[in-house]
């Protein structure tokens, strides 16, 4: 959940910069901006545990908050990936049923969802505004300033803010790929390339 | 918590001050002012849908008042003055005197300007003398 002090800081900045805008309108726009942010950055994820059962392929899972938009990976207790897909949102479909009952962990990517809280605040992770409040602010400002016939309508400034917002999305996506590390590369060899021997490869050397 | 112009009664009371109609028997009775407020709210919905459609108290609908009943008017504080002017403007519209027509137009213009964010100019002085 977004912390109240973070939301108040954001709303106060918006109230100052959008003369004549209503609080309700700004919060509604904030929901749309958060939706676009998480859809394009894929940065909000959660590990959901469920129990794999023999002869059962489909498992309905529910995140603690938000809605599932993608399935990233399913692993077992040894962190080995399990082949799975999500044809229906919220239902993990295993390629093969496990032989015995075991805990499985599905990493899902999430987005905000309606309804918002009672005061119309979008339900989003608590790190969103502390880390990205400038970008979210630009997103709201840009979209609000594009509305026609309002006191805060300003298309030129709107384009500036929307560009800042999109740049922020690109940064957030890059950080997510690098798991918020500094100086590492985003790409790693797939697990399927790993071998147990130091020789590496297969079928290229004589076996004794 | 902002309580200025919080309930329908506050709007009626303040409107009587602007209408200079504070001594009974009133020229504009309570029911006609309540009706004027209902119409003003509809016009406000047209101009600023964001003030109504996201309002959970009324389920996104425009509120309606049958009488001066102490019910709250769920308008955000910065915009309440606009609805007061709209109420007064609509009430004045029923009069047929030239001066009242000008006053009605002025109040309705302030209503529009406040909702749409145009800075209102200073009030024009009332016309002097008797209309010809």
Describe the structure in your own words.
The complex is a heterodimer of chains A (208) and B (132). Chain A is α+β, with helices and mostly antiparallel strands and 208 residues long. Helix content of chain A is 36%, strand content 20%. A four-stranded antiparallel beta sheet of chain A has the order 1-7-3-4. A three-stranded antiparallel beta sheet of chain A has the order 2-6-5, with no helix packed on it. In chain A, a hairpin with a 4-residue loop joins strand 3 and strand 4 (81-82). In chain A, helix 1 runs parallel beside helix 3 (128-145), helix 2 (23-41) packs across helix 3 (128-145) and helix 3 runs antiparallel to helix 4. The radius of gyration of chain A is 22 Å and the shape is elongated. The termini of chain A are far apart. The model of chain A has no long low-confidence stretch (mean pLDDT 87). Chain B is built from five helices and no strands. The mean pLDDT of chain B is 86. The chains are: A alpha+beta (208), B mainly alpha (132). Chain A binds chain B through residues 19-25, 27-28, 118, 120, 149-152, and chain B through 48, 50-51, 54-56, 76, 78-79, 116-118.
Q: How many individual helices of chain A?
A: 4
Radius of gyration of chain A (CA) equals 22 Å
Q: Oligomerization state of this entry?
A: heterodimer
Question: C-alpha Rg of chain B, in Å?
Answer: 15 Å
Separation of the first and last Cα atoms of chain A: 61 Å
The main pleated sheet of chain B reads as: none
* Spatial strand order of the main sheet of chain A: 1-7-3-4
Count of DSSP strands of chain B: 0
What is the total tally of β strands of chain A?
7
Helix content of chain B: 40-55%
The pLDDT mean of chain A sits at 87
- Largest beta-sheet details of chain A: 4 strands, antiparallel
């Amino acid at each position: 959940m977004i912390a109240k002090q973070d939301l108040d800081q954001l709303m106060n900045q918006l109230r100052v910069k959008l003369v004549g805008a209503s609080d309700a309108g700004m919060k509604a726009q904030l929901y749309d901006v958060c939706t676009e942010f998480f859809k394009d950055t894929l940065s909000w994820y959660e590990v959901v545990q469920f129990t794999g059962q023999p002869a059962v392929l489909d498992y309905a899972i529910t995140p603690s908050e938000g809605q599932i938009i993608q399935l990233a990976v399913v692993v077992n207790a040894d962190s080995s990936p399990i082949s799975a897909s999500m044809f229906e949102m919220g239902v993990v479909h295993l390629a093969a049923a496990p032989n015995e009952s075991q805990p499985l962990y599905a990493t899902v990517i999430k987005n905000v969802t309606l309804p918002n809280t009672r005061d119309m605040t979008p339900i989003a992770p608590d790190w969103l505004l502390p880390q990205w409040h400038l970008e979210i602010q630009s997103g709201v400002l840009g979209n609000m300033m594009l509305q026609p016939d309002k006191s805060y309508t300003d298309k030129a400034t709107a384009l500036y803010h929307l560009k800042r917002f999109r740049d922020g999305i690109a940064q957030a996506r890059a950080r997510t790929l690098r798991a918020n590390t500094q100086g590492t590369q985003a790409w790693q060899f797939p697990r399927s390339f790993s071998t147990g021997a130091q020789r590496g490869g297969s079928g290229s050397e004589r076996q004794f | 918590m902002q309580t200025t112009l919080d309930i329908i009664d506050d709007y009626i009371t303040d409107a009587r001050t602007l209408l200079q109609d504070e001594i009974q028997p009133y020229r504009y009775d309570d029911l006609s002012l309540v009706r004027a407020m209902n119409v003003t709210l509809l016009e406000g919905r047209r101009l600023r849908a964001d003030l109504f459609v996201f309002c959970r108290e009324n389920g996104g609908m425009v509120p309606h008042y049958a009488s001066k009943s102490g019910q709250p008017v769920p308008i955000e504080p910065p915009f309440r003055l606009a609805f007061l002017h709209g109420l007064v403007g609509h009430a004045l519209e029923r009069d047929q005197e030239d001066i009242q027509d000008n006053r009605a137009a002025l109040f309705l213009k302030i209503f529009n300007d406040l909702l749409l964010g145009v800075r209102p100019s200073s009030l024009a002085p009332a016309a002097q003398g008797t209309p010809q």
